[in-house]
Design a protein that fits this description.
Layout: E1 4-6, H1 28-49, H2 59-85, H3 89-109, H4 113-121, H5 131-146, H6 153-178, E2 184-186, H7 196-200
Antiparallel strand pairs: 1-2
Helix pairs in contact: 1-2, 1-3, 2-3, 3-6
Length: 204
């Protein structure tokens, strides 16, 4: 039996060097929604960093930052999702620019000495915490070490450069993968169980 070829055309791919979202004139609501989420996170981080060491608690430091970062993700992920599913090429381009900006933002955010010091100030609380609170603080301290915060400045700068390059490659790989619709070849029997209207619409 002659196979059916299931495919769609290859989508156009965008270059990795996307412009900053400020230079994309369309979809102002998306830009403003992202910027507002970014501002809220920075404002919370600044407030946490300003707390005197003697006044630090798990709640006003680790938990406050966790909630702020979670709120940022809740605002950012729907915008990123548009880059995967929107039929509008301009909207996808905006979403991809936002994703690139977010990557750069978190590289800078994760390199903040004052936030690292805030976590160090409450590191001694690990033994007095239980359950998810203890896990949250342990993970936060470990994450800072993975980002190289405890390394000498020169080594940390090198690690940051490597992480930045990896982020670029990851974004490019994701776009390339999402843009491939080369299809597969199957026989009519292998399509058993699919709706007949769908099968009739496939290329032969």
């Amino acid at each position: 039996m002659k196979p059916l070829l299931v495919h769609t055309s290859l989508e156009a791919r965008f270059a990795l060097n996307l412009p900053d979202i400020d230079h994309l004139p369309y979809f102002a609501p998306l830009k403003e929604a992202y910027k507002a989420a970014e501002r809220r996170l920075v404002e919370t981080a600044d407030s946490v960093a300003a707390i005197p060491p003697a006044d630090r608690t798990f709640e006003n430091t680790a938990l406050a930052l966790e909630r702020a970062e979670s709120d940022f993700q809740d605002a950012y992920l729907p915008l990123r999702f548009l880059g995967e599913v929107s039929p509008d090429a301009r909207q996808r381009r905006m979403a991809e620019a936002i994703e690139k900006r977010t990557s750069r933002f978190f590289l800078k955010y994760g390199d903040r000495e004052d936030l690292y010091q805030a976590y160090k100030d409450i590191a001694g609380l690990v033994g007095s915490l239980e359950g998810t609170d203890k896990k949250l603080l342990e993970d936060a301290l470990r994450s800072n070490e993975y980002k190289g915060m405890n390394l000498p400045p020169e080594s940390r700068a090198r690690l940051k450069a490597v992480r930045s390059r990896l982020s670029d490659l990851q974004q490019q790989f994701g776009k390339n993968l999402a843009g491939v619709f080369e299809g597969i070849e199957v026989t009519r029997d292998q399509l058993a169980g699919l709706p007949e209207d769908y099968v009739k619409g496939l290329d032969k």
